[in-house]
Fold:
Amino acid sequence: MTQIERYSRLMKVDISSVKAHVAVHFGLEGSVLAGTIQASAPKVETSYEIESPDDRERVAAVLRNARDGCWVRAAVANPTPFEDRSTLNGEPILFD
Structure:
């Protein structure tokens, strides 16, 4: 919703109201004790209810920009490398 507000202001489109529903499906497989635990998030669902007196195409353009300009969506949808660093008592812990 933050991006919808941001892009509606940039594009000067009047959005009166936004209601959102977001559902993230999580999974977890493997064993903690065996060190094989693997988390997953196989699906993210979003739905928005928008109220606006503005032209339908202008509002749709805001929504496209909000979707395409969302950093969280980009990080989830595209492979994003993590750089993990941890220390124990000042010494690095290395991960495989």
